[in-house]
Amino acid sequence: MRRYRLEIDNVRSHLRSLWIVIGLQGLVILALWLGWSQCPKQLRVHVPPDLRSGAVLTATEVPPANVYAFAFYIFQQLNRWSENGATDYGTAIFRISPYLTPHYRNELIADMELKAQRGELAYRERSVHEVPGHGYEERRVDVLAPDIWVVWLDLDLLESVKGMPVKQTTIRYPIRVVRQAIDPETNPWGLALDGYSGEGPRRLTDSELTDPKAVHAGPRKEFQ
Description:
single chain; alpha+beta; 5 helices; 6 strands; disordered C terminus
């Protein structure tokens, strides 16, 4: 009888151990569920275009190449007037407004109204293209402060009125880009154009056109 009593005690002890394990597993599952319920529903990660050597990424880091690609794409869309600048300019501002800061959007609207008063938009077509050999390099993106960049774009500006060319020049645009993660539904980049930096756009000299490495004398620090 004593042997059977010991076996029963061993079974009871084993059952208690199992209940303890089950209780610990329940606590772990509850903690995991709480962590999962508190995690963000969406996560934005900027992946650099060149992954041949690998990359270590964080959710908050934006590689310079992505900042450059964003600035070039949005700025090109802003300056694409396919038929009539009198209507296309405003349409472009409205279309890309989620990718503009309120300050820059107001500047563009004021510029559009001024050009309209001067008669510079009627039947005007415009486009900008990247100058061959002046594409992305790391030195074309300056980090002014956390989440604030300046992108140096060398672009050919082409304009015509009723099919007749009226302007063809090469301009360097220093574009400010800031982080603006307000509405991921309308702006999945989480970035926005914030106007021009420093003295603004200027025409490129012949020496700068032949030497793509002469991007600028150095980063213009606007924030310390």
